[in-house]
Specification:
By secondary structure, this protein is of the alpha/beta class. The protein has 7 helices and 12 strands.
Length: 297
Amino acid sequence: MSALIRVEGLAKSYPAAGGGAARVFSELWFTVEAGEFVCLVGHSGCGKTTVLNILAGLDEPSEGVVMLAEREIAGPSLDRAVIFQNHALLPWLSVRGNIAFAVRSRWPAMSRSDEREHCDRFIRMVGLEEGEAKRPAQLSGGMKQRVGIARALAIEPRILLMDEPFSALDALTRGNLQEEVARLCAATAQTAFMITHDVDEAILLADRIILMTNGPDARIAEIAVNPVPRPRARHDIHRHPDYYAIRNHIVEFLLQRSRQLAMLGREADRDARNPPLIRFGAGGTTSVPLGNRRGYA
């Protein structure tokens, strides 16, 4: 079975102030399987948001290609829904109105009764039944993000793209929404790709975690396979015997190895097409060359 998303040789450059080009990242190769939740983790400046924008069709790569179900991504599409850091709601529409606007964009011929029933389903999913008539100005930050989540899921996208959607929220609201997203993605078998700075968030949500070196000219250093099986819950995830192994590995990467690998530069690169697949278990941490870009051999 082919991967749902294939990223092949992706690179992005911008014109430099003194002439030439400033390269943000190079030679990114990875896949996202149908129903999988993948997180991209790295320091500011490594190009995480740019990668997500390219997947969304909001930006173009300088080199390489992104394939969705074997077709090249060449612009925005309702097959891909994006949840941004800011909620990006239409301020003059209610909760229901914002969700219905997206539903009508996806299915313009849908009857009003079917549209109402469809919106009801996703309003219930995120627990906003009592606030469905409110406009964004009347909602808390967490409620606004719930609307954004419902709106994105309501168009039933092939892949859900998230750009640090919980970073501006308080810790309690952030934790609750993280678990809500995990539950909703599992319930709908939703494929998801998210960028984050938060190690604990990545371990809670992701099946695989892609680790990028520091920019400029960032690369994928390795891909960590989450040893904690679904369903994962904040209150007991730390009890899994391999939780601290993956957490310490990612923290150590971000604090030390991401910078070291960036300083070593291109000469120290492994095969960019096959970054090491890191597995965690009773025997310790093992690094397995991918051999193919799917990463599940």
